[in-house]
Amino acid sequence: MSYDKSFIEVQFPVSKVSKECYKERKAGSSQLLTGFGKWWGRKPLFIVRASLLGLLFPSTQDPKKDREIFLKILTMDEEGLWNRKNKSISSKDIFNLLTPEERNLYFETISADKPTFKKGLKKEEKANLQKIAFNRLSYDEKLKYCLRPEQVENLDQQSWSQVNAYLGTTANSFQELIKQLGERKFGHTPSVGDCFSGGGSIPFEAARLGSNVNASDLNPIATLLTWSVLNLTEGNKEEIQNLKKFQQTVYENVDKQITRWGIEHNEQGWRAVAYLYCTESNCPECGYRVPFLPSTIIGTRTRTVVKLIKNDELKAFDFEVIENASDDLYEEASEWSTVADYSVKCPNCHTTTPIPSIRRDMDDGVERPYRYNTPNSLRKWEQLDFVNRESDILSERLYCIKYEETTYDNDGNPRTIMHYVAPSEKDVERENKVIALLAERIEEWQKQGYIPSDLIEAGWNTNQPIYEKGWTYWHHLFNPRQLLIKGLLMENSVKYAKTDKELIVTLLGINKCANWNSKLSMWSNDDTHNSRMTFSNQALNTLAHYCCRAYKPLYEIWNISIEGVPAYSQRKVQLEDARKISWNSDIWITDPPYADAVNYHELSEFFLAWNRKLINKVFPHWYVDSKRILAVQGTGSQFNESMVEVYTKLRNNMPDNGLQLVMFTHQDVTVWAELSMILWSAGLQVTAAWNIATETESGGLKEGNYVKGTVLLVLRKQTSEETAYLDELYPDIEAEVKYQIDSMREIDDQDDPNFSDPDYLLAAYAASLKILTSYKRIEGIDVQYELSKARNANEDSPIVKIINEAVKIAYDYLIPSGFDKYIWKTLTPEERFYLKGLELEKHNIYQISGYQELARGFGVHEYKDFLASTKANSARLKTASEFGTRGLGDSSKFGSTLLRNILVAIHIAQKEEDSVKGRNWLKTELVNYWNMRSSIVEILKYIAPIGFIENMGHWQKDAHMASILKELVENDGV
C-alpha cells in the first residue's frame, strides 16, 4: 500500500526555517505564548506551522516549483519578505547598498558617514529606494526588518492566486488552505493530535491554522498552559478586555493595601523596586558572620558597588552601598568577592572554607537515589517556617534596596531617579513588619491554598534545595515579602473573580510571579539591573544572593498578555496519560520527553504547589498531582517500553494514510538508533528527517554549548510483512543515501544554499532508517532485545552500525566542491573535518551543531582546539594566523598532518611578510615534500579563494598568502 508523498517527505527548506525559528526564539517576551507562563523546551510556533504545511502540501514532479509555492505560503519568498517588512532601512544603509550612479541620482551629500537625500525627493521614490536596498540584502539581513511569519495574518490576493493556480485550491486564508488540503488528503478538515502538549505550541499553532485539535499531557501544569493558550485566546474582544480589567482590579487593590501598610515606601517618599539579599554564615576560623557575595558590583551601568564595613562589636560586617563609584573603587570591587569556586573567603581572617564544610556535609556510605543526598547538619525547615532561626548554620540578610524617586520638571512631566542604598534602621523595621504581617496570615492562607503548603518530594532536581538550604516545603523557596505579595494577589483574585477564566488567569499570573520572584531569582548586575527568572536553566539552583522584586515591577509579570485569535476549528484538551488516549487524529505531531533531558514532573511541582486548590475548583475532574510514577522518563528498558506503548497507541489511532512527525533534540547516533527502534517497534516507518537549528546563546547558569537543534522525524504506518537479511541492506542503504543527497543537491539554490553538510548527513541517517523500517523484521536484529538491554557505551547496536555506515557513505560522497577526489581520500579525518568546516563557513553557517555533526561523521573526538569561537551562531574555525604554531607536532592527530604544516607555512609567510619562508618551511619540515606537492597545491587552491567571500573577511590576508604559496609550490623546481 502506498500513498502520495508529502512535501516534507521529499524536501524541506531547513536553512530558512532555522533562521525564522531563531528570530522567533530571540524575540523573547514578544513571542505569542511565552507570556502565558514558563514551560521547558517549548517549540517555536514557526516550526509547527512549517511542519504542518509540509505534511499536508503534496509533492509533485516539479520539486523546484513545489518549493517556490511552499515558501510563498510561509511568506519566505522575496515578495513575502517584502510584505513582512515593518522597519525602515536607514538612509546610511541605503546609501551603502546603492551603486555610485544611484548614489549620485538620489543623494545630496555623497558621504558614507552622513548621506542626505536630495531635496524634493518624492515619497514614492524613497519607498522605491527602500525596496531596492531591501532586495540587495541577504535573507538573514532582511529578517532584521521583518515581522515574524506567525505574526502575518494573511497573504495578499496576488499570492493566493498563484498558490491556488498551482495547488488547484480556492483558498483566501491559511485556514481555508489547510482545510482544503486536509479534505483532499483525508476527506475532511485535518485533525492534529499531540499527547505531549507541554507549553501548547503544537496544538495552538495547528488550531490557529484551521486544523481540528486534540491535545493532552500527563502533567496538570502543562495541561493548564495548553488549555489556556487554546481557550483564552479564542475569546471575543469584550471577554479578553474583561479578563484584563479583572487583573488590573486585583493589582490595584493589592497595591493600595501595600501602600497603606507602608512596607515599600521610605521616609523620602521613594518606592522600592528591588531588594537584594545574601546568605550569611559564621567563619569556622574566626567566628565572624560572613555575607556570601559572588560579586560586590551591584550595577555596571550605574557603577554601584557594595563595601563591607567591619563591625568588631557584633563580629559581623555592615554594608555601605556606593553609587557612581570612582575608577579605583570600581576596579577593586570588580576583583573582590567573598564567594568563588563554591567556597567562602572570610574578609576578616582571609580563611577560605568550602561551602560543603560550612554545611558539614558527611558521607555515611549509604546508597540513595537521585543527586544531592549526602547528609549534612543544616536544620530541615518546618511547615510554618518562613525565616531562618538564629541557631541555623545559614541565614539571609538584606544588603541593598533599589528605590525609585519620582520628580517633576518645570512643565510637570514626571522624571524617575533610581537610588541604591544600604538598608537603614527604618528599612529593617519595614522588613520586620512584613514578617509580622505574614505570620498573622500564613496558617489561614495555606489552608485556603493562597500560598503553598506542600512538602517537597525528593527527586533528581528537587533534592537540591533540601540538601543545599534545608528547605523542605515549597513555600521555603520564597522570602516573607514574596509570600505576602503573592498571598495578597491570590486572596484578592478569589474575592473578585466571577468566572472560571478569571481564576485561570490568576493561576497563570501567580505562576509567572513565582518564576520571576523567588529566592532562586538571580540579580543581574549588567545593564538590566533586575532579577532573572527562577528557571534561567532547567534546575532549582539555590543562590548565594538573590533579588526580591518589589510590587510595582510585578505589574507586567502579573498581567497576562492575551491576543485574541478567532476559533477556526474544534479543539479539545485533556489531562491524560499518553498511553491511554482514546481519540483518533489524521496527523500526530509530538515532542516527546527523551533521555531525562528535563525532569518536567519534578520542576512543575514548583508551580503546582501554588495551583493545587484553584485547579481543583476550576477543573474538578482533573487530578492535581505531577504523576511522577507515570511520567515517561529516564533511559533503559522501562522508558523504551513506555515509549513503544505510546507510539503504538498513536499508530493505531490514525488512518492508514495518516502521518506522524516526532520532534526531538539530536544527541548522538545511539540516541537516534534507540528512538528509531522504539518507533519501528511501534509499527512506524521513517520517511524523512530534517534538522532545524534554533541555537540561542547560553543563558542563566548554563555552561558550555547548549545546542538547540530540533530533528523532525516524519513517519507513516509500517505496512510491510517482508523480512530482510542484514547484509542485504547495505547496497540498498548506499543507493538510498546517494539518491537522497543527489535529489537535495538538484533542488538546492546555488546562490542561496538551503542544505549544508549536517543536512546531508541527517539525510543519510534518515535514508538508512527508511530502508531499515520499511521491513517488518530484519534477520540478525532482535528489536525487543535491543530495547530491553542496558546501554553500553563500548558496544554498538546493529542499528548504530547501520547508521554509522550510512554516514560513512555520505562522507565519502560529500567531497568539497572542486576538490580532487583521490587527494581527498588520502587526508586524515581531522584534515577532512577542518576543510569541510571551512565549507560550512563559506555557506555562512556558524552553528556549533554543524561542527559537532562533522566531528561525529568523521570520527573526530577532540575538535575544540580547531575553533576560534564556540559561541552560539558565531562558531568558526581558527585561521592559519590564529592557529600560529601552537600544537604543531604534538601528540594530537592533527598536529603533524600535512594540512597543519600548510597552515603553519601560511602563518609564517604572513607573519614574516615573505612567502618564500613559508614555502621553505614546507620543504624543510615535510620529508616527502616533492611527492606531496600535488596535495599541497590542492589544499592551497581550496583555501585561496576564501578571502574573497563576504562573510569570511577574517581569512582575507591568510587566503591571499595561500594563493601566493600555491604558485610558489606549483612552480617549484621548474
From TrEMBL:
One of the entry's Gene Ontology molecular-function terms is: methyltransferase activity
All copies of the DUF1156 domain together span 11-73
Which SUPFAM superfamilies has this protein been placed in? S-adenosyl-L-methionine-dependent methyltransferases
Pfam families per UniProt: DUF1156 (PF06634)
- What's a GO biological-process term for it? methylation
Record protein name field: Adenine-specific DNA methylase
Supply the alphabetized keyword list. Answer: Methyltransferase, Transferase
Record the organism.
Answer: Paenibacillus sediminis
Q: Which InterPro entries match?
A: Antiphage_assoc, DUF1156, SAM-dependent_MTases_sf
